[in-house]
Amino acid sequence: MSQTAIVLAAFGVSLPEAMAGVENVLRRVEAAFADSPVRLAFTSNLVRRVWQKRLADPAWLTAHPHTPHYLRAIQGPLATIANLQDQGYQSQIIQPLHVYAGEEFHDLQSYVAGLAGIATVKPKWRPFKTLALGRPALGQPGVIHPYQRDLRRAADILAADAAEARQMGAALVYVGHGNHYYSTGVFHELRQMLAQDHPDILIEIGMVEGLDGPAEAAARLRQAGARKALLKPLMLVAGVHARDDMAGSGDDSWRGALEAAGVETVCRLEGLGENNAWADIYVQNIRDAAEHGGLTP
After folding, report:
1. SS3 string of the chain?
2. pTM higher than the cut 0.85
3. Residues 262-289: pLDDT tens digits?
C-alpha cells in the first residue's frame, strides 16, 4: 500500500446528472494509482453548501437513493487533506481538476503552500512530509512544465471535435467558465493553436465570465458568414453553466445569441472529463507532480 494519498480538487458539481465528467476522472485516477487512496474534494464553497443541504434532507435522500458515497461526505480541500493526514498520510499529491490556472487554482495553491509550510518545534512532529501540487489541464506559468506543451496536448485531444464540426459543415464554438480576476488569455492561445491545426474550420472560444462573451463570438460568426455552429463546453462537466448559460433557451444564453445572429446551433452537453484522453491529462499531471516531489503514488 502506498504511503502517498491523492486528492482530486474539482470546482464542484451541483447537478447530479452532470457528475459524469468528475466520475470518469475519479475512476481513471483510481485505476492508475490502485495502491493509493484517492479522495475527491470540491473547492467551491457554494457547491459544497448545496450538497450539505440536500444530504441533510431525508426526503431528498429518499428520492435519490443512488447518490454516490463520496458526495455524502464531500469536503473542501483543506478538510480532505487534514483528514488524510490524520489517517497517517503525511505525503499527498493534490491534483486540481480545473481547466486552467484561474482564481480557484490560485486559491488552492495558497492553501497547499500554507499547509506545507507548517513548522513545529520538533521537526518530527511536522504534520506533512511532502505536499505536491499538480497543475491544471492547460498548465500554469513556469519553467518546469512549459504551458505551451500542455496547450499542445489539449489541442491534439480536441482535434476530434474539429473533425465533428467539419463533418457537419459547422463552426466549432467552445464555452469555458472563465473569471473576472485572472486573464483568460490562455484560452485564446489555445484557440489560435486549434485554428492553425484546422484552418478550414472557424473556431471560437468564449467565456461565461470574462472575455470573450456570446455577443462578441456571435458577431464574428456572423461576419464570417457562418450558418451553423457546434457548441460545446470547455469545462470539466456539463453542469449549470453548460446547460443554462451555454445551451439555455433564453436570449441571454450562448445558444440564444448565436441563433439571434442567424447561426443554427447544435449543442453537445458533454464535459471534458467524460473524454478519457482528457481525463488522462490529470493522471499524467499526478505522475509529474509525484516525480517532482520525489513521491511514489
Report:
1. CCCEEEEEEECCCCCHHHCHHHHHHHHHHHHHCCCCCEEEEECCHHHHHHHHHHHCCHHHHHHCCCCCHHHHHCECHHHHHHHHHHCCCCEEEEEECCCCCCHHHHHHHHHHHHHHCCCCCCHHHCCCCEEEECCCCCCCCCCCCCHHHHHHHHHHHCHHHHHHHHHHCCEEEEEEEECCCCCCHHHHHHHHHHHHHCCCCCEEEEEEECCCCHHHHHHHHHHCCCCEEEEEECCCCCCHHHHHHHCCCCCCCHHHHHHHCCCEEEECCCCHHHCHHHHHHHHHHHHHHHHHHCCCC
2. yes
3. 999 999 999 999 999 999 999 999 999 9
